[in-house]
Each structure stands twice: as C-alpha cells, then as structure tokens.
Amino acid sequence: MGSGDWMAKAIKSAKTATDCYHREEYGEAAVAYLEAASCLTQVVDSVADKKVRQKAAERAQEYICMVKRIRQRKTSGEGRCRESQGGGGDTGASGGFEGGRDEDSQSPRDQLGDGDGGGGDGEDAVVGGRSPGSHRPVIRDEEVDEEVIPTYAPNEVDGSVKVEDLIGMGRAKELFESRLGMPILFPQLFKPYGAMSRSTGLLLYGPPGTGKTQLVNAIASLYKCPLYVVTPADVVDKWVGDSPKNIREVFAAARALSVKNPDTTPIIFIDEIDCLAAKRDSSDSESSKQIKAELLNQMTICTRPTAPVIVIGATNRPGDIDDAVMRRLPTHIYAPLPDVGDREKILRKVLGGLGAQLSDADYSAAAAVTDMYSGADLVSLAGTIQERVLGRLKDCTHMRWVKGPDDVQRMQPCSPGAEDAFPMAAMETDRPGDVLAPPIQASDLRASLAERKPTATAAMVAEYTQWQERR
Ligand SMILES: Nc1ncnc2c1ncn2[C@@H]1O[C@H](COP(=O)(O)OP(=O)(O)OP(=O)(O)O)[C@@H](O)[C@H]1O
Ligand SMILES: [Mg+2]
Q1: Among 157, 164, 167, 213, which is best to mutate for testing ligand 1, by the most ligand atoms less than 8 A from CB?
Q2: What CA–CA distance (Å, rounded) separates 308 from 256?
C-alpha cells in the first residue's frame, strides 16, 4: 500500500473511532484509534514530505493518547480492564474492555475538552478537528502534553544493506534467517504452536564489529519488518529521566502495529543490551533498576499472542546480561570473527571498491596475517590504506592517462619512470576533477596492517566459548 492508501485508511479509522466514541462504544473506539495510529505510522514510514510525516506522527500520537485515555478511564472508573500491564498504563493495543460506560463519567466531549477544531472534511477527521455540531474529539494541547505518548515510528531501515553483503559470519546468518525468516514469512504456520513461536526473543552475541547490527538491519529490510531500535545512547542522551516511559512506549508502538497489521512482524532491536540490562546488583542506581524492570515487563508482554513482536538483543558481553532478561531471549546466536577465507573475501570487496589491483598472492597473504581481525577492522583498514595513498598525492610529480572507473580518461599519479608518464604535480593541475587517487600497492596494505591492530583478543573469544559451554 502507498502512503495515500494508508492515509485514507487512517481517515476512515479515525472517523469510525470518533463515531464509536460519540456512541459511547469505548472498546471499539479504542481499537479504531489504534488502527488510525498504526496507519499513520505507515504514512510516517512511507511518505517523503517532512511536514506530512511530522503531522502524521503528531496525529498518531494523539490517537494513542486517546487509547490510553479510554483505558485509564475504564481502569480507574470500574477496575474492569482485562489486563493491567504495570508501569503505569500501557497503551495495550489489544483493546480488551469488558464493561460498558461509567455512569458517572464525563461525556466524551466534556472529557476531551471543547476545542475549536477546524472543518469537517476527511483530513479533519484524522486531525481530530471538530465541525460545528459534531462530537469529534478535540484534544487540547495541554491535555496532550500531560500524558502524551510519543508515537515511535519504526526506524528507517537502510534498504541498501543486504544479507549477502555480510561475508561469512559462520552459521549466524543461516540460523538467524531460519529462526526469524520462516515465522515472519509464514506466520499462519507457526500460530498453532503458540505465541512464543512467533514472538521470538533472540540474542546475537560475539566480538565487536562482526556484523551483528548490520545483520539485524539486513533481515528487517529483507522481510520488510518495521524495526524499532533501542540503544543505550537513546536512553542516556535523549530519554534522560524518562527512560522507562520511553521504553514502554517503543514497545507499545510496536505491539500496536503488530495487532493492527497481523501480516507485519515488528522487531524491537535492543543494541548493546548488556548496557541496559546488566546483571542486577545492590549498587544499581534507581534509574537503572527502573530501566531493567521496564525492559523485563515489556519483553514479557511481547510474548502474548495478542501482539507478537520479535525482540532481538545484541551484545559483546553476553555474560553481563541479567538472568531474567536472558530467559526472555531464549535463542542465542554467535556472530564469530571471520575465518581466513572470509577475511580474504572482505579484503577483496573493500579494497576492490577502492580500485586496488592487488594480486591473489597479496590478498591471501593479507588474509593469513589478519587472524582476530573483525569485519569492521578490515573495513576500517581500507580507510587507513586510503589515507596513506592519498597522502602520496601531494608529493607526486608525474601523471599518466588511464581509463577511470567511469570509463573516462583520467590522470593518475605515477612514478617518473612509468610508461607514458608526463610531468605534472597533482597540486598544480588545472583539472583537479580529472585526478584519480594513486593506485593501492601491496606495500600500502602491508604498512597499514602493521599500523592497525585487531579489536578482539584471543582471551575475548575464549570467553564466548566458555559462556556457551556454561549455558
Ligand atoms: N562479516 C562481514 N562482512 C562484511 N562486512 C562486515 C562484516 N562484519 C562486519 N562488517 C562491517 O563492519 C561494520 C560494522 O558492523 P556492525 O556494526 O554490524 O558490527 P557489530 O557486530 O554490531 O559491532 P559491535 O559489536 O561493535 O556493535 C559494518 O558496517 C560492515 O561494513
Ligand atoms: Mg553493533
């Protein structure tokens, strides 16, 4: 569906929601508001115009706020809400009201405020405006601010990251795909086995730079799974003081999407999960305790059949993770360092991308001496080589014409004795745009290897093995 279709669906659902609300059918209203919010989340995801995205996100936020308001109303008024999910009012997404209307409650209009919304066209239904005489809910800004639930649109997945671009990774890719790919592609076949089979909790672990984060992105892109990423940086920088609430809301947004669009399997990816969910100890700060409690609570809710969401954690330090969190991530997949064959492939790919024309012997020699290097180490080695090569540019005195990667004749620095060399300092040319980088030589590769050491150590790798054996 395109963004226009999602918008149309959002408008329809928002209208249904307001109508239900007016008829005091609050359960239905909550479901329809949630539907409108999910559709708007899709609009946010698919539309390029920044303003439209922002507006859609704001509206979705308001609708989720409405759902929460309805639920709270029922919970506080009658205590008959089917599930109380802790942590102060989860938006739920599964509806689930059993009772009717509170007799002593305010009318929807009273309760929601009597704003002066705009006209009554379809767009206004979505924006929550109120045409004269209608009872469309209008949410006053100050009310929204009070208990606003930010709508977490899924993160933008970099579609250019492909599973096949990740070289090697032992059995990680295969295991990851089989654990996630089948349930995502054929959800109906997995349903009979219960919620857990779809709501996979999975931990990806291994040395730094082995492609864990890339793999999650690639899988989300391959299966078109909305991806919600939670990183310690978000929690520390953006959510400071409000982390449990934000964690709750990210999970709620993913569940809402899952409920409203059963063909979609949202993934919540908690990168560097050891930082957020380290083993509990008595010296934990209050905020750290709250974050862990909220993560646990939300991961538990995710296993319910009403709103299956896949939770993936990634870490370099699996042994540091809290045991209760580990129990909610029952599948463990190891992303190893590349072996010699894979290192050669990675080097060929990254250096080939820089136009290096090294011999097979150069590549296999480099692969042989890069034991313990991760994929990321090898990629950054290419950066070191590039710097080194470009450093030669300013000292060059001669050039020659060669065919560039775009098949156009370009000038490339060369030694004065090279065939067809002509005197020309790169710094003096009046055609700098035609200058190619000096060619990468085997000596550049060797010198850069001597400069760059691997991030992982043998002791680190041994720890993973011990950890696997202990489990
Ligand atoms: N097996 C691989 N094949 C190709 N490129 C790789 C591989 N492993 C890592 N890379 C490169 O390294 C970069 C870093 O990878 P990524 O961030 O996914 O590693 P990570 O395992 O999540 O690291 P960390 O544990 O530090 O978070 C990627 O952009 C990718 O280019
Ligand atoms: Mg990572």
Answers
A1: 213
A2: 10
Give the mutation target among 165, 214, 343, 345 for probing the ligand 1 site: most ligand atoms within 8 A of CB.
Answer: 214
Same domain flag for 138 and 9:
yes
What is the distance between the alpha carbons of residues 32 and 10, in angstroms, rounded to a whole number? 9
Query: Is 465 inside a domain boundary?
Result: no
273 touches 325 (CB < 8 A): yes
What residues make up the domain containing 83? 3-146
Are 294 and 422 in a shared domain? no
Distance separating alpha carbons of residues 265 and 246, to the nearest angstrom: 21
Mutate to test the pocket of ligand 1, among 162, 203, 204, 210 (most ligand atoms within 8 A of CB): 210
- Single pTM value for the model: 0.68
| CA–centroid distance, residue 238 to ligand 1 (Å) | 25
Residues 176 and 81 in one domain: no
Type of residue at 325: V
Q: Which of 53, 21, 27 is nearest to 40 (CA)?
A: 53
Give residue 372 CA to ligand 1 midpoint distance, Å. Answer: 14
Kindly state whether residues 120 and 269 are assigned to the same domain: no
Q: What separation in Å is there between the alpha carbon of 160 and the centre of ligand 2?
A: 17
Task: Please report the atom of ligand 1 found closest to the CA of residue 204.
Answer: 21
Evaluate if residue 91 carries a pLDDT over 50: no
Residue 390: CB atoms within 10 Å: 12
Q: Is residue 444 part of a domain?
A: no
Structure-token pair, residue 162: 């492909």
What is the tally of structural domains in the chain?
A: 3
Residue 183 in domain: yes
| Mean pLDDT confidence for 314-319 | 96
Ligand 1 centroid – CA 207 distance (Å):
10
Can you tell me which atom of ligand 1 is nearest the CA of 376? Answer: 12
Query: What residues line ligand 1, using a CB cutoff of 6 Å?
Result: 166-169, 208-214, 314, 316, 335, 338, 346, 375-376, 379
CA 392–ligand 2 middle distance (angstroms): 34
Q: Are residues 105 and 170 in the same domain?
A: no
For residues 98 and 186, membership in a common domain is answered with no
Whether 365 is covered by a domain: the verdict is no
Answer with the residue of higher pLDDT: 192 or 48.
48
Percent of the chain's residues with pLDDT above 70: 77
Q: Give residue-wise pLDDT tens across range 128-173.
A: 332 233 222 232 333 333 333 446 778 877 778 889 999 999 889 8
Closest C-alpha to 181, from 215, 152, 206, 150: 215
| Nearby residues of 11 by Cβ (< 8 Å), 6 or more positions away | 36, 122, 123, 125, 126
Check whether residue 188 and residue 310 sit in a common domain. yes
